[in-house]
Amino acid sequence: MNVPFCLGPGLEMNVKVFALVRSTKKGAVVKLDERNNQEVKPRTTYICEDTGTILMPTDIQSSYQFGGERVVFEKSEVEAMKHFADPGFALMGFKPKSFLKRYFYVKPAHFIYPDESVSGCVNGLFLAVGWTVGAIDVSVGMVGVCMFMDSNCCRCFLVCW
Hints:
Strand order of the largest sheet: 8-2-1-7-9-10
Radius of gyration: 23 Å
Shape: extended
Strand content: 35-45%
Structural class: alpha+beta
Helix content: 10-25%
Largest sheet: 6 strands, mixed
């Protein structure tokens, strides 16, 4: 996966992410029609309780009870609220190594390396940042903390470098 790595305002490089070990998951269930053995396509229809008419997607709104009032949101507004940031890494700062606890581990390790195909001279910048983090790590015992958004822009992870 190719994602940008933002080190600060105006300083960004592209990196590739890979995992040596990945857990396998059971495949999705495919439902078949018993009469002709064709795949069944699910379809949801919403019906108005008052009139009994079929509701179109434009007729359905999301709302939230706030301060005694119902606040109504359009579908586009709900989608905009779900978009937290663009995919990629963003360096947030540094924390002491004692900040890391064993129970923080939730996923197998992923590794990053510079992507020279998008922009040249990324390798030198990547090494310089790595040496800087290494120097901070040796002298003070610090780790870099980054925010990682995967490609679907729905989940945000804090990762350490």
